[in-house]
Amino acid sequence: MDATSQRLLMCRPTYFAVDYAINPWMDPNAPVDAALAVGQWEQLRQTYLDLGHTVEEITPVPGLPDMVFAANGGTVIDGKAMAVQFRDPQRADEAPAFRAWFEAAGFETYDPKHVNEGEGDVLLAGDHLLAGTGFRTAHAAHAQLQEVFGYPVITMQLVDPRFYHLDTALTVLDERTVAYLPEAFSAGSQAVLRRLFPDAVHATMADAEVLGLNAVSDGRHVVLPAQATDLAAKLRDRGYETIGVDLSELRKAGGGPKCCTLRLRQGKASK
After folding, report:
1. What is the 8-class DSSP label of residue 75?
2. What sign does the dihedral 180-9-36-64 (CA atoms) show?
3. Cα–Cα distance, 37 to 53 (Å, whole number)
4. Beta strands in 74-113 (DSSP E)
5. Of 142, 221, 259, 260, which residue is the catalytic one?
6. Parallel, antiparallel, or unpaired: how do β-strands 178-180 and 170-172 relate?
7. DSSP conformation class of 265
8. Cβ(254)–Cβ(25) below 8 Å
9. In the annotation, is 53 catalytic?
10. Residues 6+ apart with CB under 8 A from 137
């Protein structure tokens, strides 16, 4: 298995908090340790650097506690960036901040026509875009994604509100292999996944419930929540090297390693 060097965008959780509830993980009455969240995030960032990846940072904006979840800030493929439109007003002001960053970084940037929450619901798997819908990204957004990026889009219907974004229910391991939780998808989407990825790794509900599928893979190394022990074992059995990180504080807002990480694909050679 060959590792691919990646260019990643992250946002330090300087203003992280759980001040509202827009997914089942969030409880504004539960205590949050902001300093611990920053420390766990720094561990994740250092893990990427130790693997040889490039990490760029967008400046956090006061009053936007979920901006740490950079994966929701856009979709970037072949030097093109699709900006986002959040479903919830609490996150709306993140969208222009990420859009401005893409433009300043030189990406050809497109505005969304429908609710679209970036790589939270859009994952490149080989020559297909897997696009989630059901809770956040509108199904109508999938057509625009196909027009902008020129990859066939495969709609994935999510059915469990705990797994409200595609990247909480499925992770792309390499161009041919994914891991996913079957129960998070409709019967039709499960059938599509079986057809597309007959050798997929199936996660248990126990690992999904610690956001074990919210993982980042470079084709060889898989960075995933340390608590997802069964999934890590399955991945090692398949030949992947797993690196567990503890993001338990950020999980209080429904986020894991992938939520904190936006892949910046500059051109076709880095797909």
Report:
1. E
2. negative
3. 22
4. 75-77, 80-82, 108-110
5. 259
6. antiparallel
7. -
8. yes
9. no
10. 114, 115, 116, 117, 120, 121, 122, 131, 165
Collapsed DSSP state (helix, strand, coil) of residue 20: coil
Is position 142 annotated as part of the catalytic site?
no
Catalytic residue among 165, 202, 221, 260, which?
Answer: 165
Strand partners, 125: 128
Distance CA 59, CA 62 (A): 10
> Quick check: 178 and 172 in contact, CB under 8 A?
yes
Q: What is the mean pLDDT of each run of 10 residues along the chain (271 residues)?
A: 95 98 98 97 98 98 98 98 98 98 98 98 98 98 98 98 98 97 98 98 98 98 98 98 98 98 76 33
The Cβ of residue 34 has, within 10 Å, a number of other Cβ atoms equal to 14
Q: How far apart are the first and last CA of the chain?
A: 16
CB 231 within 8 A of CB 257: no
215 touches 209 (CB < 8 A): no
- Phi, then psi, of 76 in degrees rounded to 5: -125, 115
Between CA 265 and CA 146 the distance in angstroms is 16
- Nearest of 161, 162, 181, 159 to residue 170 by alpha carbon: 181
- What would the two tokens of residue 94 be? 């993140």
Whether the model pTM is above 0.85: yes
CA nearest neighbour of 43 among 252, 248, 265, 262: 248
Residues in the chain: 271
- Distance CA(66)–CA(49), nearest Å, equals 23
Q: How far apart are CA 122 and CA 114, in angstroms?
A: 14
Strand partners, 250: none
